[in-house]
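Researcher: For the record, we're logging two predictions in this thread. I'll number them. Prediction 1 follows.
Model: Prediction 1, sequence and structure:
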Amino acid sequence: MIKIDLITGFLGSGKTTFLLKYARYLMQKGLKIGILEYDYGAVNIDMMLLSELRGTQCEVEMLAAACDSDCLQRRFKTKLIAMAMSGYDRIIVEPSGIFDMDMFFDSLREEPLENWYEIGSVITIVNANLVEKMTKEADYILASQASCAGCVVLSRTQLSTPENIENTKKHIANAAEKIHCKKLLTTYMEKSWEDFTDKDYEYLMNSGYHIGDYMKVITEGKGEFSSVNFLDIKDEVPVLKEKIKTLFESEEYGKVLRVKGFASENGKNYEISATENELVVKPMNVGRGVVIVIGSGLDSKKINELLDS
């Protein structure tokens, strides 16, 4: 049977960065891997970031997530059926940070997928400097992902403190308690990713998963997550950074949780990744002027006015 891993993590946690490292480790072991990537928005930013992995040992597939949950689950199953015919040793699924864990487990319990796939590891990525106050919906997603993980991998620990790391773990435990998950069975990996050894990756590869026992929350109306997408952004990096800061600082745009995309400056391309407490800009070989804003209760008209100004 084909092993299939799930890498989850709330918006801006660092899933794609981790996936790049994990995938390279699997390829070094001689495995042929398939990556199934889907994002929350009309443009799949992470697909572009993962394109460097493509080769004889790795292929990256995209699943459009801009549809309702039933449609998404059908597309997910159809894509996995096709990937099962491609000779992969292992498949890695990286969904949007806004992800219903049931979709993964339910799909793999159904024929023909249950005859072809075996769940390997569920790995949840969490920023070690997690913001203290999150929306009810965000806390639910965080807790549901952590409750199913074989291991929670903390990101940016080298930029954190022992106190912040403990506060993040307490936040996860409190969020789990709110959805009646009495005990988190997951383990934590707290070391800097730059210090990961083959032994660490081997542990993650075999860390397994848990069937989280929690109360499912269905959100409706204004609290639901949405995205606003912009193509052919002309702003150079300094101007765009200031606009992104404004999105997070002002409530008139809604509750902005994540901004990501690409911008250019002096003929060079850059990746932009922002959350409430972090804005990172780094050089990229690929990319175009595109930005995705993700959050809840977003006012798309006002966001458009800001980014088009």
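Researcher: Logged. Prediction 2.
Model: Prediction 2, sequence and structure:
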Amino acid sequence: MKPRRSIWTPLQVNQGFLVRMGMNRPILGHLTRMRYSSMAPKESPAVTHPVTEKARVLRHIHFKRRCTFEEGLRIQENYVLHALEAKRMQSKIAQRLRQRAESTASTDLMLDWPAPAKCITTPSPVVLTFEFEPTYTGGKRIKKTITNDEIQALESFTPPGSEGYPNPKFVQVERGGHITFHGPGQMVAYIVLDLKAFHRFTPRCLVSVIEKATINTLRYAPKQETTWNAARRRSNTLGIKAIQTSENGVWIDEKRKIASLGVNVRRSVTSHGVCINVNPTLQYLNNFTMCGLPESSATSIYELVPDATCNVGDVAATFVNELCILLGIKNIDRAVI
């Protein structure tokens, strides 16, 4: 089965909803949308599959305009809270139904009703992809140990090639790990989904899926800049061979890291995700110890493939494609802002 031809059209959405999700009206800009179907190739079998109807479609929102890390974090948090509220309502309705059934000494109430609790489903999985202004983020492992002097050193660092960028900020976040850099030339993907919407899917499974999707992205992303459509696995791809090691993230070898991972889970709803180095100023990462690994260094797609011209959007689209294959999701609903 061949993927349906991708067609881009103006996105007809309730912009008020997007604003409530944390998107400022000035950054909404021109929205385009598409949906397509893809069939997973035999060499990349799914490791799980959706068990709810909503989870059969993944929503991908890509932000073309570079924004602040705090702005992206706020947008992500609103999606997480939206999913958590739906789960809370599900639980509340189910609890009241059980109480009514017990008070009437009958299970007929539970059997005959049209399952109101199931009518309130958690939202579809969402992947938010960004390119941020220079930002150093601290994970939970360094939350109580990082000093003011260390933060000052991070926020005052301006390497050659960073002209025109604002000075970095330091932001403490609720994800695992140590210090990580997010900035221009990096593709950051935040994955918001309900683990219980997938078959036997744990937080550890999610981390493994993100790593595998990143490895496949580095292999199959287009080498040259594209018009950012959803075509699957083109010819003339990057062909980068990346690996998993005993350390978190995705690596080129035991010393060179190309992608960082960090996830958080609240009541089975996930947040945060992966950061892939497309063409960042590498001094931002290599002048300090990143991810608690002093012996490692960062590399990028452009450093490994000098004639590559793919952009953050190309890498974002490919990553979402590969993630959906591993999650057993056949349909992607995309919006570009």
